[in-house]
Design brief:
alpha/beta; two-stranded antiparallel ribbon; about 160 residues; about 25% helix; 8-stranded mixed β-sheet
């Protein structure tokens, strides 16, 4: 057996930094934030993994404990997607923040994942911009199966 085991998710540092800036800004105002993770799915020795190249977002309606896209958001997201991605890209998941209360999925988050991101490759990333780990904000990526979720491995890469 090959000792090299890939991560479940690779996320580009530029995409993650862009998301982190939005999440930190919202946290400074005592609010959550969210966006979409855009990229591709690849296979390596029978193992499927996700590469996140981009983060996009649009108008959010948020509080300290909830966030959703507002009425204008889907038109904004469609425009951003068609403008920036001439090559074939997928929405591979979503990211949202839990400012000051850690990285986990609530029952609402699990329901959101099941309703909008139900493909086996889809991921849910949660960040806590107010808690730091290893010089970065606390960050976790999850997959959902039914009403349960589990954490998956990820690596931040310098892919542009």
């Amino acid at each position: 057996m090959d000792s090299l085991h890939p991560f479940d998710v690779y996320i580009s540092n530029p995409a993650l930094q862009k998301a982190e800036r939005i999440m930190e800004d919202a946290a400074r105002h005592g609010k959550e934030a969210l966006g979409l993770l855009v990229g591709d799915i690849f296979q390596w020795k029978g193992f499927e993994y996700v590469v996140v190249d981009h983060f996009i977002t649009a108008s959010n309606s948020s509080t300290a404990v909830s966030v959703k896209f507002n009425k204008l958001a889907f038109a904004e997201l469609t425009q951003a997607f068609s403008k920036h991605f001439k090559e074939k890209k997928l929405i591979v998941g979503w990211i949202h923040s839990h400012p000051s209360y850690g990285c986990w999925l609530s029952a609402t988050d699990v329901a959101t994942q099941n309703k909008y991101f139900s493909a086996p490759f889809n991921i849910a990333m949660v960040v806590d911009p107010l808690k730091k780990e290893g010089g970065r904000m606390q960050e976790r990526i999850f997959r959902v199966e039914g009403n349960a979720y589990y954490e998956v491995s990820f690596a931040v890469i310098d892919k542009k």
